[in-house]
Q: What sequence folds into this?
């Protein structure tokens, strides 16, 4: 297997934050974005200021589009997105978090 093939098969991480603009209620647009992303098959974890998700590349990019489409259906919206590869395994995340807390 070549390096590009193995890289494309590794999980892709996504972090996104939705900022509804000039809307009386913010929660509906944000909730719709999170639910739309989850429907694309990514694993979703909602944080205090942003949502984290991971999956294969196709799922992650579909989740970004679905989340943005859902949020903007409520009105003007800004969505910030960060993508990453080379995600640590769950055990490695716990190890890193433990080190940071110590």
A:
């Amino acid at each position: 297997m070549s390096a590009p093939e193995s890289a494309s098969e590794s999980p892709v991480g996504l972090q996104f934050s939705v900022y509804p603009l000039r809307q009386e209620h913010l929660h509906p647009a944000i909730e719709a974005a999170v639910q739309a992303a989850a429907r694309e098959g990514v694993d979703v974890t909602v944080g205090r200021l942003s949502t984290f998700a991971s999956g294969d590349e196709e799922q992650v990019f579909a989740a970004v589009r679905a989340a943005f489409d859902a949020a903007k259906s409520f009105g003007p919206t800004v969505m910030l997105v960060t993508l990453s590869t080379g995600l640590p395994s769950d055990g490695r995340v716990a190890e890193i978090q433990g080190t940071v807390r110590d």
User: Anything to note?
Assistant: Confidence is low (pLDDT under 50) at residues 91-102. Strands lie at 12-20, 43-46, 51-55, 77-85. The CA atoms of residues 13 and 44 lie 10 Å apart. The longest helix spans residues 57-72.
